[in-house]
Each structure stands twice: as structure tokens, then as C-alpha cells.
Amino acid sequence: MYFSISYFTSFTELFLLQLDANETQEGRIHRIRPDFKEDPSFKNRLISYNHSAVHIPTDIYDGSTIVLNELNWTEALEDVFKKNREEDPTLLWQVFGSATGLARYYPASPWKDARKTPSKIDLYDVRRRPWYVQGAASPKDMLILVDASGSVSGLTLKLIRTSVSEMLETLSDDDYVNVVNFNTRVNNTACFDHLVQANVRNKKILKDGVQNITAKGITNYTKGFEFAFKQLSDPNVTRANCNKIIMLFTDGGEERAQEIFSRYNPEKKVRIFTFSVGQHNYDTGPIQWMACANKGYFYEIPSIGAIRINTQEYLDVLGRPMVLADAKQVQWTNVYLDALELGLVITGTLPVFNKTSSEDGSRKQLILGVMGVDVSLDDIKRLTPRFTIGPNGYYFAIDPNGYVLLHPNLQPKNPKFQEPVTLDFLDAELENDIKVQIRTMMIDRVPGNKTIDTLVKTQDERYIDRGVRTYTWAPVNGTDYRSAAFSCTCLIMVFLCKFEENGYTFIAPREYCQDLKITSNNTQFLMDFNQYIDKRTPSDPMCKYIQYIILPFNLIIKNVKGVLARFVATDGGITRVYPKSGGEEWTENAETFDSSFYKRSLDNDIYIFTAPYLNSKPPVHMFYLVYSSTRKCVCVCHVDCVILDDGGFLLMSNQEEYITQVRGLTLTPELHSSLSKRICRDIFSIFSLSKKEQFFSLFFPLKMTCILYFSLTSIEISFPYLVLLTKYTFVGFFSAYSEEDTSDAYSKESCITEQTQYFFENDNRSFQGVLDCGNCSRMYRAEKLPSTNLVFLITDAKSTCLSCDPKPLKQAEQPSIGPDPCMLAQNPRYRKGPDVCFDNNDDCIFCLGFSTAHHFAAVSLLCLMMVSFILLLL
Questions:
Q1: What is the spatial distance between Cα 524 and Cα 509, in angstroms, rounded to a whole number?
Q2: Is residue 628 part of a domain?
Q3: For residues 590 and 508, what is the distance between their CA atoms, to the nearest angstrom?
Q4: Quick one: 425 and 299 in the same domain?
């Protein structure tokens, strides 16, 4: 067979200057070398719209007949890609992922592996990407059955562990899974006693459990399969309720367990896939029969090189019913990190079928691959009218799992994260009963709106405010998503006709007019803006945001000693600082919609004072004060005097050690416990939830609340007067770990940290009491300063009672172990799977697979025989 193929391999740039000396000139001409240009639509990535590019996984031989055939027939897709872009110039990546592992994407671009694994080996396989997994088959309930008898000890057990880990990577959030091991007894491998959602957290727990399997005893397939069938049919747990699968990993055996299959699977509704693992002399006939008798497939995994290919080929089998149904249903994925560096994207997918017929006239039941079109979240955000619903309003959207597609708190901090970014709506915000109802109605595609009194966390993540917010939501037609708007109506619009040049003016870099160029230089942008608006009117169709500009008036306020500067900020993005010299040291964000001080002012009708940052974050001040002029306090040396803001941050003190603390609290744990009622509430933020509450003795109306949240989210919560808020930041969901296997070569790291916050809730103005420290005590009194967010606290000095000298509570992020993930899986949140299920209606009789390693072994043996024959001839 001869192929005449020209293509650009995405790795070409790696060897343009180092072509293999043995490569023939004829072979070289088949590789295209496009002319690339930077394209801002792709974040200045090198792009060529004249060609598509091809990526072939490292572990697949790019000269094989199968790959050459794929290159040949997928070449026609290039014209389709180009036509699509002509019809819609905003299209980003268009990708075809083949069931063989080849990926053809348009426009062409040199490949960059953003994960940068330590070995520098490219481990990208399109069949492992979230969009391919979700688009290739219907949801599945999978029970992985691991043989833990003594015969699998040693290398075979290591191969099984790695194989199971790779199998788990083929599952998405629409799937449910559990792993059990058996010999003469059956045991849950992890802490789950039923199927659980195949999210990142649960898969990590199952992987860890598999590593702890030990081999002993003898094999009893009857007990293993009976346990598996019962768990798959448990009606009391949430499941995918579509494809039902049992995956058996074993070295072989004599038992067929026919009685169990006749009793539990007479209609063959549960597929059985069997894997013979390791190099051994055991009879594999019985486990081949299990697969063939139950509409499954049999595979062999003799070595580590055969694991990846053979643990994902089952998806081709599950795709057969979809092919027979000719189901061309577009599916939209979860949010995930694009491998070609577009950032967070969603992908619309469509399966590609083989519609040809066999010689006997029957249809071929093969899924050829999945087509995908990426949509960047940045592009979606640009389409939402951000400045029309106020600084404290925002748009968000969720999918049927309750995961947010859009939300201001969807901000993953680990760019190497390879799993879908699954942040639940209730973790992006503080969970309460009303928000649970909103989430349920959105998932059920029931439109509505609710106005609630809720708590919000500030832009700088330091403060908690209470405000009235309105949620309005509706389904997005033609997609699985549901969109909503979160708004606050608390603005008074005042328009002025004159733009005075007094003070120092900052302007937010917004697209006020379509033909007004935005620059990062504030001075230049302000000059361009002034010249531009002289020629335009508020009703100009090119300037849809001009009407929202509120020009600040001149402040005529008598200078107050100690006040360095005053300012006016507006909803239109204009900020003016008085005097002009004060603006030269202004470090606030010019975009008022991103400024905590501005957004807080809309929820509070008092004077807001904010403590300066002592870490790397920028400071936020409502008034700049000369500290030296306020430091002289009426307090004397036998008492400690401090002024705190409503977040518990220190503004002033008569003790130097307090001033130099970085985000440290002056209130001790004893003082908090004497003032507070404690409620500890754990919220597992991204993937699933469980909640528990503990109550302790209380004296005064101050509550302490503990909240968990991941780095992808911001959580807000509230309780009385100064309320202690503890949150956990999850920078991903994996602690750094190493495995003996190669299944998780992508670097997955995370950390969990705890943060403490305080805020006012009620109107109580003063508190007082005594801290009993055994042989001495300390008196305290706290007064809330009128019309401000400040608290004045006076206590007996530490030196008067040294036994009352614990370490202060820290507001800086502290390491934490987080919640118990096994408890979280017991009460999963409400979700909905896909509306359509394609399962178990195929009639394919082929059920035996062969490992890639065997193909390579056969080729190697043939080569060896040829060399030997030539040597004999010589």
C-alpha cells in the first residue's frame, strides 16, 4: 500500500535544524513547514491558517499503516476547517481526535507541552483529554474488580496497580466508579462502599487505595463477581444509570463463574471487560469466555508498554451503540485547561462514525473519533455586559453537574492542572438553603429569580459584607448550560457636564468606544479619552459605555491634620485623587469594578477604614492617614490599646510588636472563646460536599465559623459581631506525590491552607469581661466606634499576667489537612447526567483484543528472523 501524504507534524520545529541524517530527501518533502505568524486571537501564539497540524502520541509509531491511513483520510478535514473559519472568523481551535490517538487541529501551530513533565517526554494523548472522554461514549457505572490472590504478587501486582490508575483516568464527572479487590474475600479498596462520582478527588482516593492492595490467598471469581453485580445494582445510591461495566484485572484462572452470570446478568445488560496482566503461563480461556459471553472485550497487558493503549480501547466498544443510533448530539464539556495554551476553555464535541458496511451487509459499529471546537472563557466573558449591572453584580453559568462555567471566583491558580476545572456553584459562594434551591432549579432548567440577604467576600479576599442581591436565571437554549445574573441595585447616578482637570485622574482601561484604543498607560489613555469624547455624544452608537461615566466633582473640604489625600471614585471607571500629589503615590486599581474599597462602599453606609497590607498585596485605604500623628494614645503602659477594622485587621496600637505583625491578630484565642459561640462548618469546595456542625459553650453573641474553600473559589460567610471565619484554600486537589507507575506523569500538586477572617453582624456596641488565666486574669473592654467599621479594644497588658500569653490567631494562610474526603462522598450534591443514553444495543461478535506490545513483539520477531535468514545466506 502506498500513501502520498503531506502534513505538518506539530513537533517539526523540534528537529528542523537536526534532520535525521538517514532520512531520505523523498521522505523530507512530505513534511510541510508552514510560515507562522503571531496571532492575538490565540494569545500571540505562532499560527498558520494555511495548514492544519498533526499530533501523534509518543508511544505510537508514526510510520505504521494505521497512522498513515489516518493521515491520509483526515487530510480532507483541512478544507472543512478552513470553510468553517470563513463562515465564523471567531473560531479558535478546531480539532479531530482519532480513536487511534492521532489528533489533527487547525490552524497549525508548533506544539508546546504546557505541563513540562520532569522527563521532558510528551505524554499528550488526545484520547485522554476531557473533551474526548466526554464525547466518545455515554456515561457509565464502572466497577473495577482486582484479583488480589497470591499469584499476582510481584511485578504482576505492580502492573495491575498502574493499569487501574490508567483506567480511572479515562473517566469523567458524568461517570461513577468504585474499585474492589478480592481473593477468598471481597474488600473495598478505598473508603467507599458504593459507586462514587468519578471526579478528581474520588479518583485520587481510589488510586491511593489501589497502591495499598496486597496479594495473598487464592482466587474466587464467584465471590468477586457476586459482590460487583450487587454494588452495580444498588438502588440507594446516585449512579450514571447508563452503561454498566465490570473491569476484571487478573492473571488468569480456571473458574468461569457461569452461575453468577446466569443469575445476575441473564440479559447481558452489564458488560464484562477482562484483562490478563503480566507474563505467565496461566490459562486465559476462562476470562476470555467471561468477556465474550457478556458483550465485553478481552485484553492482554504483558508489560507496562501495553497499559495505556489497552486501558482506553474499551471506549471504542462503548461507542458502538452510539454509532448504531447515528447519534449526532453535540455535547459541551466541563471547563478545562487547553493543551495549546488558550487558558480555560469549553469544547463542543461531536462523535464521528464509520458508516460503511461489511461484506455481509452489516454496518460497521466503529467510532472513528471525536470532533471538537474550543470556546475560550475569556471570549465568553467579553460577551457579557459587565458594566450594566453594577460593580457588585456579575454573570455566571453552571452545567448539569452544578459546576460553574462563568463566575468571578473561578480562578484556578495551578496552570499545570490537567483535570477538568470543576468548581461547584455552592463552593464559589457560601452555601445556604436558598442557594441550594437556586442551584437545583437551574440544573432542572426552571427559570426564576430570587432576592436574598446574603454575605459577600470582598475583591481582595479580606472582608465579609452583608448585602441584598438578586439572582435571575434561565437555561441557555441549545446547550447544557444554565446562565444567571447576580445584581445589586444600590447606585445613585449623578451626571455632570464638565470634566475639571483638578487633582490626579485615573481612568479604567475599558472599551468605552469601539474605535478608542485601550492602552495600559493611564496618562496616555486619559489624554486619548479626553480628545475622543470632545468629538462624541453619549448617544453615539460607537460608544455604548460613555453613558455610564460619572465625572467626579471637585472636593472642597477643609484640610484635616493627618489626612494625606482624599478621592472620589465612580461607577464609570473615573477616579480622582486630591491633591494631585496624592495621586502620584496611588496604588489602587484604576478599574473601580475590581476595587474592594469601591465595592464595599456600596454595601455599607458608614465610613470604611481599611488596614494597610504588610505583605505583597497592594494596600486598600479609604483615607490615607499619617500614622505618626495618631500614634500618641491615651493608653498607658499597663494596658494594651488597639484599633481593629471589621475584618480583625490591626490599624493602630500602642504596642510596637503588634504593628510589625503581618496580618496577625491581637485578640487571643482565650478572648475569642470568652466572647464567642463557635460553629464549625466544613464546606468541600470544588467537587462534592458534606457538612457538619459542632456547638460549644457560649457567653457573648460572637460566633466563630470555619469554612473550607479551594483556590478556585472565594467563600463568604457571616455570623454575629466580630465573627471568626476560617477558610481553606485548595490550589488543585492533589498533594504532591510520586507513584511507582507512570499513569500520572503529569505533575499534579496542591496544598490546603486555612485562613481566618472577622466581621460585624449585629448592632451591639460594647463588650467587656475577664480572661481567667489561672493564677491571674486580664480584663478587657471593646467598643464599636460610631459610624465606622472600627473597634477600639483595651485590655490589661500582657506583662500584668504572663500566663495569658498564647500565640495570637493568624489571619495569614496556614497549612491545613482539610476535610475528610471519604465523608464527603456519602452525601453527594444534586446533579443531572446527559438526557440521552446509548448502551448495550450493539451486536458485534468480536470480543478479543491484542496488546500493542504483542504487535511490536511480532514485528521485532519478524525482523529478527529476516536478519537471521540474511546471515545464513552470507
A1: 11
A2: no
A3: 5
A4: no
Beta bridge partners of 336: 345
- pLDDT over 70 at 197, yes or no: yes
102 lies in the same domain as 152: no
CA distance from start to end of the chain = 30
Q: Are residues 609 and 469 in the same domain?
A: no
Cβ atoms 342, 42 nearer than 8 A: yes
Residue 217: CATH number of its domain: 3.40.50.410
- Is there a single domain that holds both residue 152 and residue 283? yes
Q: Residue 683 corresponds to which cell in the numbers above?
A: 464546606
Residues 384 and 372 in one domain: no
* Shared-domain flag, residues 238 and 345: no
Structural domain includes residue 436: yes
Q: What is the mean predicted confidence (pLDDT) over 490-514? A: 62
Domain check: are 292 and 330 in the same one? no
Q: What string of DSSP letters covers 611-631?
A: PPP-SSSPP--SSEE-GGGT-
Task: Give the pLDDT band (50/70/90) at residue 848.
Answer: low
Above 90 in pLDDT, residue 870?
no
Q: What is the dihedral of CA 144, 149, 154, 155, to 10 degrees?
A: -40
For the beta carbon of residue 209, count every other beta carbon within 10 angstroms: 21
More confident residue, 332 or 532: 332
Which residue type does 294 have?
A: N
Contact 565, 584 (CB under 8 A): no
In a domain? residue 728: no
Q: Which of 287, 138, 139 is nearest to 225 (CA)?
A: 287
- Number of structural domains (the chain) is 4
| pLDDT average, residue stretch 355-370 | 73
Domain containing 479 equals 378-487
In a domain, residue 315? The reply is no
Burial of 282 (0-12, 13-18, 19+ CB in 10 A): middle
Model confidence over 391-440: pLDDT tens digits? Answer: 888 888 999 999 998 888 887 766 555 678 888 898 888 788 899 999 99
706-734 residue pLDDT tens: 222 222 222 232 222 233 333 333 333 22
